[in-house]
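Tokens as discussed.
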């Protein structure tokens, strides 16, 4: 988040598979989130204020961000594991 020049609005304790039962403190930010459709007339998913946490993720595994259930609650997510792809709609 430093690269974006954002100011933290707070902190939260986060438990991940790598932290085990011991939480780590992560800065939180209030941001907007949008998935814009590529064609005129198609709907967009726009959430004006979302609270996000900043943490070092496992970039070696190709993870740059995680989308939580607070965002997915506005969507239909279909994951096809055997084909290694997903579809998201709103």
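Sequence:
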């Amino acid at each position: 988040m430093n690269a974006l020049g954002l100011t933290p609005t707070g902190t939260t304790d986060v438990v991940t598979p790598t932290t085990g039962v011991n939480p780590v403190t992560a800065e939180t930010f209030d941001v907007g989130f949008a998935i814009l459709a590529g064609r005129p007339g198609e709907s967009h998913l726009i959430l004006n204020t979302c609270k996000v946490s900043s943490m070092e993720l496992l970039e070696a595994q190709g993870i740059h961000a995680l989308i939580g259930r607070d965002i997915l609650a506005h969507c239909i997510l279909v994951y096809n594991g055997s084909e290694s792809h997903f579809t998201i709609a709103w």
